[in-house]
């Protein structure tokens, strides 16, 4: 959860910074990298930051979810070098967003559909 919250916070901060820089006609830009699964060591980063001497005990469901995520990350087809190349291209083109995997579009559309649906529901009653 902490990873997701911090990631979302950085995206929103970057979007606002992008708008502010554009309004000032600044030469500096902002590019938000939105990768999907890339074979890196990030899956193990939470445990590496832990200050507890004992590893946390995970429920069976949490262990299954972690195993699924680990498999997805390890089976990523893009390398870190691929992501770096796409990122540099996005920065050079002054793109606000760099998406590394087309398949995540469906997840984004599903999330936004839920947001729009809730808005329409609430707006109809207000």
Helix and strand arrangement:
Layout: H1 2-23, E1 32-34, H2 45-49, H3 60-74, H4 80-92, E2 97-99, H5 104-125
Parallel strand pairs: 1-2
Structure, described:
- A two-stranded parallel sheet has the order 1-2.
- 61% of the residues lie in helices and 5% in strands.
- By secondary structure, the protein is mainly alpha-helical.
- The model has no long low-confidence stretch (mean pLDDT 83).
Distance from N terminus to C terminus (CA atoms, Å) equals: 32 Å
Quick one: biggest sheet? Answer: 2 strands, parallel
Strand content is under 5%
Q: How many distinct helices?
A: 5
- How many strands appear in the DSSP assignment? 2
Strand-pairing-aware structural class: mainly alpha
Strand order of the largest sheet: 1-2
Q: How much is the average pLDDT? A: 83
Rounded to an integer, what's the Rg over CA atoms?
18 Å
H and E order: HEHHHEH
Please give a handful of descriptors for the protein shown:
mainly alpha, 2 strands, globular, two-stranded parallel sheet, 126 residues
Brief synopsis:
The chain has 126 residues and is mainly alpha-helical. It has five helices and two strands.
């Amino acid at each position: 959860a902490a990873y997701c919250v911090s990631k979302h916070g950085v995206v929103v901060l970057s979007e606002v910074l992008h708008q502010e820089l554009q309004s000032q006609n600044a030469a500096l830009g902002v590019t938000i990298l939105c990768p999907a699964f890339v074979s890196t060591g990030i899956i193990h980063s939470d445990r590496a930051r832990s200050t507890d001497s004992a590893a946390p005990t995970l429920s069976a469901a949490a262990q299954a979810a972690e195993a699924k995520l680990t498999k997805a990350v390890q089976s990523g087809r893009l390398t870190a070098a691929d992501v770096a190349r796409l990122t540099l291209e996005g920065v050079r083109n002054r793109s606000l967003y760099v998406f590394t995997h087309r398949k995540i579009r469906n997840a984004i559309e599903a999330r936004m559909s839920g947001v729009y649906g809730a808005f329409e529901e609430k707006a109809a009653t207000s």
